[in-house]
Design goal:
Distance between the termini: 22 Å
Number of strands: 3
Shape: elongated
Largest sheet: 3 strands, mixed
Structural class: mainly alpha
Mean pLDDT: 83
Helix content: 55-70%
Number of helices: 12
Strand order of the largest sheet: 1-3-2
Order of helices and strands: HHHHHEEEHHHHHHH
Amino acid sequence: MMFAVWIPLLMPLLAVPAARRAAEWLPPRAAAWTLAGFSVVLAGSSTAALGLLASAGALRLPPVAALGHLSPPLLGDSSPVLVPASLLAALALAAGAFAVVRTGLRQRREMRAARAASAAADELSVRPDELPYAYALPGRPDRIVVTTGMLRALDAREREVLFAHERAHLAGRHHLFLATAELAVTLHPMLRGLREPLAYALERWADESAATATGDRALTARAIGRAALAAARVPGAGSRPRTALAVTAGPVPRRVTALLTTSAATARPRRALRRALAGALLVCAVLSAGAVADAAHDLHAGVEVAQGETGR
């Protein structure tokens, strides 16, 4: 068990760079789902591994052993590092639980504050503000928050691109992808490397949706570029919830280049190479989940032996 529980904890060292490269080769929508799902699997596996490690140490405590009618010497895996490792695992679990609750409450607080400041009768909430910014604000109902400064920076057709981009964020529930990734990072800090490519994939997903809605990739690229330039003239303009997405977010030059040089038939690495990398990611996920299952089986078997139930 002591060997198996380390696999999910150390897997991000290998898996995160591979996932980042895979995201570069996948269409935006597929990349976003891959990164978000991978974050959930790795964070869940590492958390379960910590729980098993903490449980293995707790079962050796006399009060816990007596409660479970266990004989600690028969539990197996008597490595001298087990008890201190179990203590560290318990502390990590407690810290992770605290961080998840704090992050979840902060996300909820930010969304509530943004909605309270963006009351509107319809989808569009226009703020009388010279600072140029706009973002998608999910809720009931979903809203697009935009300032008069941003509206003046764009012409009529470019505004349609802006609205189509933000509608794509709302329709795709992109804020949930970001919220999930942020919570995964609180559980396993090594997953931090997936957050930036995920945010980029979500922006590219919305870019492609806007290009499809308007039927003009060049117009979409120009509107995104002009909106970003307008926002860049006022650094820090427009605070928004961290999980709310905006057309000006991320590496805008890279996004504009992608719109001008790609189409529905984007040139990508050879299919065999993409499949090989996808297979590697699948192996990483299966190894993490399988290691947790193996560790859980070993712990359960040890408990049965300590309870004298091996004959059953």
